[in-house]
């Protein structure tokens, strides 16, 4: 069981980002989070893949392998990937509980 300060810090940021997703949805920035019903698992996967693409972009920028620089922050993008994955898991768990 992880319990060190680094794990707690990472999970705290994922928790905060997960709450941020809900806020952005409520403000109309997007129609669904991956926790919501009304979209398919393929669409949830596309959302997750989009975030993973941003991780790839950050890696390329950090390695100075891209001249198409957007100032991507690797850690921030990884937190977003984790938060999207958590939302996806929440939806699966809700569906399972309703069975
Ligand atoms: Mg992102």
Secondary structure blueprint with pairings:
Layout: H1 5-26, H2 41-62, H3 74-98
Helix pairs in contact: 1-3, 2-3
Magnesium ion (MG) is lined by residues 51, 54, 77, 80.
Describe the structure.
There is one protein chain. With 99 residues, this protein is mainly α. The chain has one domain (5-98). The protein contains three helices and no strands. Helix 1 packs across helix 3 and helix 2 (41-62) runs antiparallel to helix 3. The chain is globular. The protein starts with a helix and ends with a helix. 12% of the residues are buried. The mean pLDDT is 94. Magnesium ion binds at residues 51, 54, 77, 80.
- Average pLDDT taken over every residue: 94
Largest sheet: none
Number of discrete helical segments: 3
| Computed Rg | 15 Å
As a percent range, the share of strand residues is under 5%
- CA-CA gap between termini: 30 Å
């Amino acid at each position: 069981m992880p319990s060190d300060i680094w794990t707690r810090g990472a999970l705290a940021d994922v928790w905060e980002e997960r709450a941020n997703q809900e806020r952005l949805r409520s403000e109309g920035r997007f129609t669904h989070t991956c926790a919501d019903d009304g979209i398919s698992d393929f669409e949830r996967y596309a959302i997750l893949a989009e975030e993973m693409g941003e991780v790839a972009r950050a890696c390329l920028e950090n390695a100075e392998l891209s001249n198409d620089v957007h100032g991507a922050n690797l850690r921030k993008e990884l937190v977003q990937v984790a938060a999207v994955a958590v939302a996806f898991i929440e939806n699966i768990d809700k569906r399972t509980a309703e069975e």
